[in-house]
Design goal:
Elements: H1 16-38, H2 42-66, H3 74-92, H4 102-120
Helix pairs in contact: 1-2, 1-3, 2-4, 3-4
């Protein structure tokens, strides 16, 4: 059984799981705006920018890797939902990512990157 997309060069329809995956990162964007609203300083903007780059890098690299996989297979769908769960934890901790919940942000971000990479291997 292969997890690769049957026709990687062809245009494929976006499924429910992929749209839900993107909504997790939309939630992260709202968390960034709330964080910046409460820390409206240069220091707060730099922290928010640093977190934005970390979250953006996880999202874009996951999306790129998932383009090669068939989302209709159970294993890929389980990967998507696992990434979504970790992404929700990562997004929930964004307002306090440099505080007490920073370890949750770091674990979720690292777990998403390692989990996706291990699955691709």
């Amino acid at each position: 059984m292969t997890w690769l997309h049957p026709s990687p060069g062809a245009n494929a329809r976006v499924g429910f799981a992929e749209l839900l995956f993107d909504l997790v990162f939309l939630f992260a964007i709202t968390q960034f705006s709330h964080s910046l609203l409460h820390h409206y300083t240069l220091h707060g903007a730099l922290k928010t920018g640093f977190m934005f780059v970390a979250v953006w890098w996880v999202w874009i690299s996951s999306t790129w890797a998932l383009n090669f996989l068939d989302p209709e297979t159970i294993a890929v769908r389980m990967l998507l939902f696992g990434l979504m769960a970790a992404g929700l934890f990562m997004s929930m901790t964004l307002p306090d990512a440099f505080g007490a919940r920073g370890w949750v942000f770091a674990l979720a971000c690292t777990g998403m990157r390692l989990g996706r990479s291990m699955f691709m291997l």
